[in-house]
Specification:
This protein has ten helices and no strands.
């Protein structure tokens, strides 16, 4: 169990290091906590590298969120909760926890490739540190390319003022990441709109019935919520949404 946990930490470390430093050859220093003046350029450079690593660790949660399936999953789950009308059920901790679990499930093939091509060879001293970083970013880029729309990618290529890429390898990672994030936001809200439609129909029907009965001062949401919950339970809503999310990343 401990060995498996170490492997997961190592994979996440490579994942985090490869994302912001995909085109920069940075040798990671061994951290030795001590306070002394830098007398040579090499010592000063090592100090800067330590600061860079600490910054990356600070931004690690954001990097994981913005380069994985977490964005789409957490937005769709949150919109589903809002569509049902239960603003606080399931609570935020459950929504985020489920989103993280599904994210690791969706990203497991990517993490497996990173483990096979980068982490394990590096731990066995078969490749260098820079080769491990290069090998670890390839599965990440493949995953993001599959979910990125051409319109968003073209937008950031234009904004970056670079030549039109001839193939995927010519697309810089700093252009791919915002394109991926914007594409995930678009896809998540499209799914959320489809989820909202049946619940909106129930709200309209209940509101019309209440108005026809002269009960205009009774909030329609109070009457509609039980019907929305019954419908959601009868169609096994969480199962269908989870299935659709996972299958969406498989295509």
């Amino acid at each position: 169990m401990i060995k498996k946990f170490k492997e997961i930490l190592g994979l996440l470390g490579l994942y985090l290091m490869a994302t912001p430093m995909s085109h920069a050859a940075i040798n990671l220093p061994n951290i030795n906590i001590s306070m002394q003046n830098a007398t040579t350029p090499q010592e000063f450079t090592q100090g800067v590298q330590v600061l860079i690593m600490l910054t990356i660790l600070t931004l690690a949660p954001s990097i994981i969120i913005m380069t994985t399936a977490f964005i789409r999953i957490v937005i769709v789950l949150s919109l589903t909760r809002q569509a049902i009308g239960t603003s606080s059920l399931p609570p935020n901790q459950v929504i985020v926890g489920l989103a993280l679990i599904l994210t690791f499930f969706v990203m497991s093939p990517t993490f497996a490739k990173i483990n096979e091509t980068a982490y394990q060879p590096y731990m066995k001293n078969m490749i260098t540190q820079q080769q491990a970083l290069d090998n670890s970013i390839k599965p990440m880029r493949d995953f993001m390319f599959k979910q990125t729309h051409e319109s968003e990618l073209a937008l950031f290529v234009k904004l970056a003022k670079i030549q039109k890429p001839k193939n995927k390898d010519d697309v810089p990672t700093y252009v791919l990441i915002p394109s991926f994030v914007l594409s995930e936001l678009k896809t998540a809200f499209k799914i959320g709109f489809v989820i909202f439609l049946p619940f909106l129909v129930i709200d309209l029907v209940v509101a019309s019935i209440l108005v026809s009965m002269g009960m205009m001062f009774l909030p329609p949401t109070t009457i509609a919520m039980p019907f929305k919950l019954i419908m959601f339970v009868m169609v096994d809503g969480w199962f269908l949404i989870t299935k659709s999310l996972i299958e969406g990343f498989a295509t």
